[in-house]
Amino acid sequence: MNFQRGRTREEPEMNLIPMIDVLLVILIFMMVTTTYARFSELQINLPQAGGEEAANRSSQIHVSVDATEHYAINNTPVTFSNAGKLAQELNRVAGAQKDPAIIISADAKAPHQAVINVLEAARLAGYGRITFSTSRK
Predict the structure, then answer these.
(1) Any idea which fold 60-132 has?
(2) Would you kindly state where each structural domain of the chain is located, as residue ranges?
(3) Residues whose CB is less than 8 angstroms from the CB of residue 49 and which lie 6 or more positions away in sequence, other chains included
(4) 60 closest CA partner among 8, 116, 133
(5) Quick check: helix, strand or coil at residue 125?
(6) Is the Cβ–Cβ distance between 92 and 66 less than 8 Å?
(7) pTM above 0.70, yes or no
(8) What is the side-by-side order of every strand in the sheet holding 60-65?
(9) How far apart are CA 64 and CA 83, in angstroms?
(10) Residue 122: C-alpha distances to residues 5, 22, 79 (Å)
(11) What is the per-residue pLDDT across 111-124, written as a single tens digit (0 to 9) for each?
(12) Is the sign of the CA dihedral 47, 49, 53, 59 positive or negative?
């Protein structure tokens, strides 16, 4: 029973404009809050030595480490068993010096742990002035 003759039935249509508006707002929100950072490689600029030698050599202790983890304090070989023993050796060499500068000369192929052992020994001995020696290029 069609009481309205001549009128055609309207097709239902879906309005996409509100959905597009919502998607654009989400897209803008994502673009604003996202951080764009690239971690492709680690840039490291190593320092180069270019200063003058220190004039005061009396309060310095030179600690050398070679590639095979052999230690020497002021060119005297020292056997390493632990950081505590190396700290005792640093105290013995320092004698009456109050706060000597510890100069670490490590071979380029020396293990990182060997240098950390010297740093730990200097900390245990109570010495805070630590520096690394470099060669001039």
Answers:
(1) Nucleotidyltransferase; domain 5 (3.30.420)
(2) 60-132
(3) 134, 135, 136
(4) 133
(5) helix
(6) no
(7) no
(8) 76-78, 71-73, 60-65, 101-106, 130-132
(9) 15
(10) 103, 63, 16
(11) 889 999 999 999 99
(12) positive
